[in-house]
Amino acid sequence: MTLPKKAAPVPTRLVGANGPSVRPGDDPAIYGSAVLEAPEIVEVRTYQTYRVRYTVGRLGLDDTGAVRVAFRMITDAGKPQATDPTAANYVSADCSGDGKMSLRIGPEGARPWILTVTAQLNGGYLSEGDEITLTFGDTSKGSPGMLMQTFVEEGYELRVMTDVQATGNFLPLPDQFAIGVHPGPGSKWRAVLPSLRQIGEGFRFGLKCEDRWGNPTDQASGRVRIETSMPVDGLPESFDYVPSDRSMIFDDLAVNETGTLRVKVYVDDILACEAGPLVVSDAGLSGYWGDLHGQTGETVGVNSIESYFDFARNKAFLDVCAHQANDFQINQTFWHKLNDLTARVNEPGRFTVFPGYEWSGNTAVGGDHNVFYATEGRPIYRCSHALLEDRSDMADDANTLTDLFAKLKDEDATVYAHVGGRYCNIHFDHDPRIETAVEMHSAWGTFEWVLTDGFLMRRRVGVVCNSDGHKGRPGASYPGASRFGAYGGLTCFLTEKNDRAAIMEAQRRRHHYGTTGCRMHLAVSARFETDAALYRRNPLAWPEETPEIVRSAMMGDIVQVSDETVETEIRVEAHAGILEVELRDGAGVLERLHPYGADDLGDRIRVTWSGAEYRGRGRDVRWTGRAQFDEARIRDLATINPWNPETVLEQRGSRSVVWNGVTTGNFMGFDAHLTDSRNGRLHITTNQGEIDVALAEIGLDPVVFDAGGLGKRLTIQRLPDAPLVRRVTATRSVAVHPSGDTPVWVRVTTEDGFQAWSSPIYLYRD
Question: What is the Cα gyration radius of the chain?
Answer without folding.
Answer: 27
